[in-house]
Amino acid sequence: MSEYREIITKAVVAKGRKFTQCTHTISPSQKPASILGGWIINHNYDAQKKGKTVEVEGTYDINVWYSYNENTKTEVVTESIEYVDVIKLRYKDDNVIDDEHEVICKVLQQPNCLEVTISPNGNKIIVQAERELLAEVIGETKVCVKVNPQGCENDDEWEEELDEEFEDLNPEFLLGDVEE
Predict the structure, then answer these.
(1) How confident is the model at residue 70 (pLDDT cuts 50, 70, 90)?
(2) 3-state SS string over the chain?
(3) Most exposed among 43, 61, 159, 167, judged by the fewest C-beta atoms under 10 Å?
(4) What are the sequence ranges of the domains in the chain?
(5) CA distance to 20, 45, 153, 161, per residue, from 107 (Å)
């Protein structure tokens, strides 16, 4: 029998991450006087492997609360944003067997507002946002393992140890009267 064996298994064969900072311009229905708050919600995304990259298509909603009419009224403006992030992959394994891959994409930093300001001309809102994604590609690969000629440890040793622990248990312990 050979001292080594090749085993085919699934493993992470490539990884990549991308940090993105971007600027969005929002056109509110009123001329803003001041910004009262900004937040991003409803982040959804889907990832697909394309060549040596993972392409992430996503959407999120930007909400900006602002005052207008000389700070006498407020309103929330919402804008849906679509994005495409291309994540370059670093391959850890050159022994990938086939082109069938599973892509796992994780959000390391949910999209969030860094800063929300009124544009210099005063009629638009500028939102600076950031997000970070991690992509892992899982594929079939070969690993080489050393074979122990004596085989695996004997499981009978475990059973003997467990039996000794239970010898001191009182079998009548749970048979007493039960009060209701």
Answers:
(1) very high
(2) CCCEEEEEEEEEEEEEEEEEEEEEEECCCCCEEEEEEEEEEEEEEEEEEECCEEEEEEEEEEEEEEEECCCCEEEEEEEEEEEEEEEECEECCCCCCCCCCEEEEEEEEEEEEEEEEECCCCCCEEEEEEEEEEEEEEEEEEEEEECCCCCCCCCHHHHHHHHHHHCCCCCCCCCCCCCC
(3) 167
(4) 4-166
(5) 12, 10, 42, 46
pLDDT digits (tens, 9 = 90+) for 129-176: 999 999 999 988 888 888 887 776 655 555 555 555 556 666 666 665
Rounded-to-integer distance, Cα 60 and Cα 80, Å: 6
Find all residues with CB under 8 Å of 131, minimum gap 6, and list them.
19, 20, 43, 85, 107, 109, 110, 111, 112
110-121 pLDDT, tens digit each:
999 999 999 999
Candidate from 2-11, 117-126, 166-175 with smallest mean pLDDT: 166-175
